[in-house]
Structures are given as structure tokens and as C-alpha cells.
Recover the amino acids of this structure.
């Protein structure tokens, strides 16, 4: 498509990138066919093609409006459209650029500012988050249904984590909300890797990956968190750590983007690129490891929900199912497995009505094969799907940990 960025837009740090992405789009509309919000709402402006047009208008000098902001807010950033697009439009980066411009021009309501600032203060603080979860569990009967549903139920105890003892070592992002919402996930990961001769090295200085801030009107704060993580991991990478492992695909997708997001930072560009190269989803680490030697065979019937950040952002669709099938698990067919469950980071809180519709649609698809349990690879999806109180949802590594010999 032809573009004519305004003089003001040309001064933006990512102006050239935005212009290149816009010119890549041919407005074919294939993206709308797989866009979850377009399917629900049927509004052109709630699909990728319409949102691209809104961003183009603003970058060409049209006034930013609250209505345009709403249409961008409704985007899940699931990146399904990127998988579908025949022209290779880098939609999520254009969306980040457009959101930053519009959010700067259009003030949010006091309630929205409070909600977003609260989420940014709470979620990246694991100790505070876990404390509030414990308080919430105590007063569960008194809480509103929407809040109570977000609290975890019947969590397995984390068990012991092995002491590092192997020559092969990896780092692992512990996560912000995962230790509170699913405390067994990282412990199970450490046990499975230990049985394969790989030790997990704790790096307490590493914190939130930065995605939450970056996608809640605070891109600079999110990038600062990325820089702190790079500083925390760098000495271990130089000492021979094989990888930085993520058990939450949402965090992994963002860390793999550090190199791009910090490419104009003269101090961190090279280090960010190396960190992105070293960042691996857990399934990438285990795909070539001899799991059959340490795990007993099972024929347990499961459904796997492949998070958008795993299949569309990291292009690892089918990888977890392949590992589980190797071990004898029986994954059921999941209709429309490419569609988002509605979690999308904080989307289930900022856009609760749409998120509930997407969640229920996704659960209907996942449960169509009558699985014993639903497995997934991202804590946000796990918590969101579990909030319906239907088939239990667990991280897939917990299922592998259960069949360790």
C-alpha cells in the first residue's frame, strides 16, 4: 500500500519500520478470516486490516481518537494474522508503534489508568502477587465471582527442586505470576531436566520479562526490565550456560524479541541479540532429549491447547504434541486450534467480556474429544481456562514429571 507519513510521524524512532510494514500490506483481508475478534464482532475495524488502516491514518496526520484506541485495545496480539498473511506483514510491531502513538495522544479514563497501573505494580512482583493470592484464598467466599474465578484451585504441591550438579546448565526465567498461580511448573521442569543431566541455575536478579509493562502503555519501563534481565543473565551466558529456558511461552516470545526491540540501543543491542538467540521455549530444549529413557509410557488422554505465543509468535505449533506423543500420551483433535483462548496477557482483565466468549469457545473445542486433562504451555492460558471451573488445565511439563521413572 502507498503511504505518506506526516512530518511528525517521520520523527518517531520507529518511523522507518512502521512505513516499511505498512507498505508490505496489500489489504487482501486474509487476516480477518483467522482474527478472533473479527469473528466475534464482525467489525472491519476489529480485524487486522482495519487496525492497520487506523494506524496508517494516524501516522499520516489524522487525529488519534478514543474509538481508534478502543479498536487497538481489543486486539489480542495473538499474531494469528501473521501466520495467515501471504505478504508477511509484521503486524505486532506495527501495532506496538501505533498503540504508543495513540496512547500518548488520547488520555485514558481515571478507572482505566488505575487498572493498568495496578496490574503493572502487582503482576511483576512475585512476592506481593503470591501474598495477595493467599489472602484471596482465605476470603474466597466473599469475593465477586469474576475475581474468585481467577484464584487457582487444587494446585499440586511444587515438591523439591534438584540441587545443580551437572556440567550441562541452563538458566530459567522463573516468571512473575507463575510461582503463585502454578508453583509446580518450574519445579517439575527442574526435575525433568535434572533426570536428563541438565541443571537449572537460579538467577534471582532476573525478574519480569517486561512484556506486561510494554503492552500496558509503558513501553520504556518494559524495555528497562529487558535490560536488567540481560545484565542478570550475561555473566552466566559467558560462563557457558546453554540456554535461557522459558516455561511460559508468552514470556519466551517477548524475550526472543529483545534483539529487535533494543536494536537501536548502542549499549545493549549486541547483548540483546545474543540473549534472544539463547532464549528457548522448554519444548525446544526437550525435543531432542531422550525422554523415553527417564519416563514411563502412558496412554493418558489429553487435549493440548497451543498458546498463540507458541504457535504464532515462536512458530512452534505441534512441537509439544510431538513430545507428548513420543511418551505415549494420546492428544485429542482440537477444532480451530489456531484460535486464541482470550487470555492474551492481561486481556482477560482489561477486556473481560470478549475474553470470556473466547475462553468458552476454546474450552468447547478442547473438551470435544473428552480428555482427562487439558495441557498448555503458558501460565496466562492455563489460569484463564481454569477460571471456568471445567476440565482441569495443567502445564504440559507437569504431566511429563508425573511419568518420570
Amino acid at each position: 500500500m502507498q503511504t505518506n507519513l506526516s512530518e511528525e510521524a517521520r520523527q518517531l524512532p520507529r518511523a522507518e519500520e512502521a512505513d516499511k510494514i505498512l507498505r508490505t500490506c496489500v489489504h487482501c483481508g486474509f487476516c480477518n478470516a483467522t482474527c478472533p475478534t473479527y469473528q466475534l464482532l464482525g467489525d472491519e475495524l476489529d480485524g487486522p486490516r482495519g487496525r492497520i488502516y487506523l494506524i496508517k491514518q494516524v501516522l499520516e496526520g489524522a487525529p488519534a481518537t478514543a474509538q481508534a484506541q478502543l479498536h487497538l485495545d481489543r486486539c489480542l496480539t495473538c499474531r494469528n494474522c501473521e501466520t495467515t498473511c501471504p505478504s508477511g506483514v509484521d503486524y505486532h510491531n506495527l501495532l506496538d508503534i501505533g498503540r504508543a502513538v495513540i496512547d500518548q495522544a488520547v488520555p485514558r479514563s481515571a478507572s482505566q489508568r488505575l487498572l493498568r497501573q495496578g496490574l503493572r505494580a502487582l503482576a511483576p512482583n512475585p512476592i506481593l502477587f503470591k501474598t495477595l493470592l493467599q489472602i484471596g484464598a482465605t476470603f474466597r467466599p466473599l469475593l465477586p465471582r469474576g475475581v474468585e474465578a481467577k484464584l487457582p484451585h487444587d494446585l499440586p504441591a511444587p515438591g523439591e527442586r534438584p540441587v545443580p550438579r551437572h556440567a550441562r546448565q541452563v538458566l530459567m526465567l522463573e516468571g512473575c505470576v507463575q510461582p503463585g498461580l502454578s508453583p509446580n511448573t518450574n519445579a517439575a521442569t527442574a526435575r525433568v531436566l535434572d533426570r536428563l543431566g541438565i541443571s537449572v541455575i537460579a538467577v534471582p536478579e532476573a525478574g519480569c520479562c517486561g512484556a506486561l509493562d510494554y503492552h500496558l502503555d509503558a513501553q520504556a519501563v518494559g524495555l528497562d526490565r529487558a535490560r536488567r534481565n540481560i545484565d542478570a543473565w550475561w555473566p552466566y551466558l559467558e560462563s557457558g550456560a546453554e540456554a535461557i529456558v522459558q516455561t511460559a511461552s508468552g514470556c519466551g516470545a517477548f524475550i526472543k524479541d529483545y534483539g529487535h526491540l533494543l536494536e537501536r540501543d548502542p549499549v545493549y543491542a549486541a547483548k540483546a541479540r545474543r540473549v534472544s538467540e539463547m532464549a528457548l521455549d522448554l519444548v525446544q530444549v526437550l525435543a531432542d532429549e531422550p525422554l523415553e529413557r527417564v519416563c514411563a509410557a502412558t496412554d493418558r488422554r489429553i487435549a493440548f491447547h497451543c498458546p498463540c505465543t507458541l504457535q504464532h509468535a515462536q512458530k512452534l505449533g505441534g512441537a509439544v504434541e510431538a513430545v507428548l506423543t513420543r511418551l505415549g500420551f494420546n492428544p485429542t483433535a482440537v477444532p480451530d486450534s489456531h484460535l486464541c483462548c482470550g487470555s492474551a496477557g492481561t486481556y482477560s482483565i482489561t477486556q473481560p467480556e470478549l475474553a470470556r466468549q473466547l475462553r468458552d469457545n476454546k474450552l468447547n473445542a478442547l473438551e470435544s474429544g473428552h480428555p482427562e486433562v487439558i495441557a498448555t504451555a503458558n501460565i496466562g492460558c492455563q489460569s484463564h481456562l481454569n477460571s471456568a471451573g471445567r476440565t482441569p488445565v495443567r502445564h504440559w511439563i507437569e504431566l511429563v514429571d508425573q511419568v518420570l521413572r
User: Anything to note?
Assistant: The mean pLDDT is 94. The chain is about 50% helix and 5% strand. Residues 190 and 225 are 24 Å apart (CA to CA).
